[in-house]
């Protein structure tokens, strides 16, 4: 295999990857916009329903007619090859990712690029080390002695539907374990971030041994191509990350064919400060967390719950910390808060800021577009006080650099407020007494919790939500197992 450059087509566009071939979209192209400058930086292939049909067909044939699902060593080889090829292109990919996603450059050294690429190695290792068979020994049901064995098998064709906020992280958290498990995949990325997926498709086609049809990538502005994956009987599993509203549609669309649906959805996670915590350190961390990538992270803590008697001090500490983290050019070293992904997303956040004011909230800092940014979909880091947890801005996912501070009256009250949410994705607790911290960790109904700044994000840590934040877990052995079926085999002895 040769090492190509991550170049675009001469017309500055990317292609679809279907059945091992890079091809233009049947619908022409659509524009890719840099959210920090509002400039059109190029084009992506506009896939159509016919393209999606061809991709599903290719994935089905690759699963049914090749030994991909049974050749564990070959899958591990292809995944490591892809990891190494992408790492060799990391600098080119970094530039294009920051331009397309608007994410701060520092994040591309972690979860926005290099982290998830490196994690492909974890899934390659799992393909080889996983216990594909389990001996259950002998038993005599109905008086006849049998030897029983369990075999883990790939579930089949996976439709992976992803959002725009951490495109590489989410794309690889799906295709990594799905391919390692022996599935074949059709990836449909978000219309706002087609290049992150398409450039990976180019590397797959030109620099790896993945057989045709094993991985297909269909970019498009048409959300209904995602729905097509959900309804098509040739697809065995939908792995979806996105909003809770779309998650409901995905589940409903998949119901007639009763395919497995694995959902990673929204969040409104609470950052709980106990009365024995270092208030300054906690408020600084809460501020940093909510402005990172302009708050466009499903697991970001967006409700800050502080002891009532410290509310005034906590507001001062948090707003000062947020004021020092101004929204700025994401290519500039040191930027933590870049732009929102699109004008549409900025309008959505502005609508919530209006709503906060209408409901009687106080904007302590921020509250609008930064005066020093003439272009780009920026919103200032914003702290809202004066509302309780029933306010819409405390209940609904805003997906911007917006933090709502709410007072609590003790540890149990903090747990109750944290749980007073339709979501249950993540959370944080700050304190000193380990027993009190553990009681909070036990009491909050979420898939992940960070203690005193602890970072749970890692390839081997399952990630996912309780309640309306989703169904299933991504990453770790649990995430790998989502892509497997279990076959029980019995033989008379
Ligand atoms: P979205 O729900 O609008 O879109 C997600 C994907 O679904 C896109 O690829 C879109 O084209 C596709 N889609 C849209 N309508 C569809 C339909 N009817 N059927 C099938 N597919 C359809 O989400 P978004 O705005 O791109 O991303 C932001 C959301 O994603 C936030 O709610 C955020 O919390 C969530 N998110 C969750 C996680 C997690 O792991 N829990 C991670 C990141 C983002």
Automatic annotation (TrEMBL):
Protein name in UniProt: Aldehyde dehydrogenase (NAD(+))
Keyword annotations: Oxidoreductase
NCBIfam families: aldehy_Rv0768 (TIGR04284)
Domain Aldehyde dehydrogenase: 26-489
Cited Pfam families: Aldedh
InterPro entries (alphabetical): Ald_DH/histidinol_DH, Ald_DH_C, Ald_DH_CS_GLU, Ald_DH_N, Aldehyde_dehydrogenase_Rv0768, Aldehyde_DH_dom
Family, as annotated: Belongs to the aldehyde dehydrogenase family.
Active-site residues per Swiss-Prot or TrEMBL entry: 264
Single annotated GO MF: oxidoreductase activity, acting on the aldehyde or oxo group of donors, NAD or NADP as acceptor
Family annotation (PROSITE patterns): ALDEHYDE_DEHYDR_GLU
Taxon lineage: Bacteria, Bacillati, Actinomycetota, Actinomycetes, Mycobacteriales
């Amino acid at each position: 295999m040769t090492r190509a450059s991550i170049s675009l087509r001469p017309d500055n566009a990317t292609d679809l990857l279907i059945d091992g071939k890079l091809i233009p979209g049947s619908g022409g192209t659509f524009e890719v916009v840099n959210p920090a400058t509002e400039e059109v930086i190029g084009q992506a292939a506009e896939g159509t329903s016919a393209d999606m049909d061809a991709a599903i067909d290719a994935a089905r044939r690759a699963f049914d007619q090749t030994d991909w699902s049974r050749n564990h060593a070959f899958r591990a080889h292809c995944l490591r090859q892809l990891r190494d090829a992408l790492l060799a292109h990391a600098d080119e990919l970094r530039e294009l990712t920051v331009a397309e996603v608007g994410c701060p450059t520092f994040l591309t050294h972690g979860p926005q690029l290099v982290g998830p690429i490196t994690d492909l190695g974890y899934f390659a290792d799992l393909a080889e080390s996983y216990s594909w068979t389990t001996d259950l020994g002998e038993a005599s049901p109905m008086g006849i002695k049998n030897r029983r064995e369990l075999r883990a098998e790939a579930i089949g064709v996976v439709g992976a539907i992803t959002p725009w906020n951490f495109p590489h992280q989410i794309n690889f958290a799906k295709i990594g374990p799905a391919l390692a498990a022996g599935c074949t995949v059709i990836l449909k990325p978000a219309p706002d971030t087609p290049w992150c997926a398409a450039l990976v498709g180019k590397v797959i086609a030109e620099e790896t041994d993945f057989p045709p049809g094993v991985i297909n990538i269909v970019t498009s502005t048409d959300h209904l191509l995602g729905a097509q994956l959900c309804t098509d009987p040739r697809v065995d599993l939908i792995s979806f990350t996105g909003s809770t509203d779309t998650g409901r549609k995905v589940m409903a669309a998949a119901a007639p064919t009763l395919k497995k649906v694995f959902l990673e959805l929204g969040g409104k996670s609470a950052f709980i400060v106990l009365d024995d915590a270092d208030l300054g350190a906690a408020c600084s961390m809460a501020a940093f967390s909510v402005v990172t990538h302009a708050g466009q992270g499903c697991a970001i803590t967006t409700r800050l719950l502080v002891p009532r008697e410290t509310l005034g001090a906590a507001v001062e500490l948090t707003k000062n910390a947020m004021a020092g983290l101004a929204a700025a050019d994401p290519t500039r070293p040191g930027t933590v808060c870049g732009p929102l992904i699109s004008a549409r997303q900025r309008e959505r956040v502005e609508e919530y800021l209006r709503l906060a004011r209408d409901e009687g909230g106080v904007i302590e800092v921020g509250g609008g577009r930064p005066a020093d940014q003439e272009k780009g979909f920026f919103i200032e880091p914003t702290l809202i006080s004066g509302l309780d947890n029933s306010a819409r801005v405390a209940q609904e996912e805003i997906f911007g650099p917006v933090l709502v501070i709410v007072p609590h009256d003790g540890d149990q009250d903090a747990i109750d407020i944290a749980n007073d949410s339709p979501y249950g994705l993540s959370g944080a607790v700050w304190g000193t007494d380990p027993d009190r911290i553990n009681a909070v960790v036990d009491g909050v109904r979420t898939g992940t919790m960070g203690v005193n700044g602890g970072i749970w994000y890692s390839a081997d840590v399952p990630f996912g939500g309780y309640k309306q934040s989703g169904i299933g877990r991504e990453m770790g052995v649990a995430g790998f197992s989502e892509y497997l079926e279990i076959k029980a085999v019995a033989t008379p002895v």
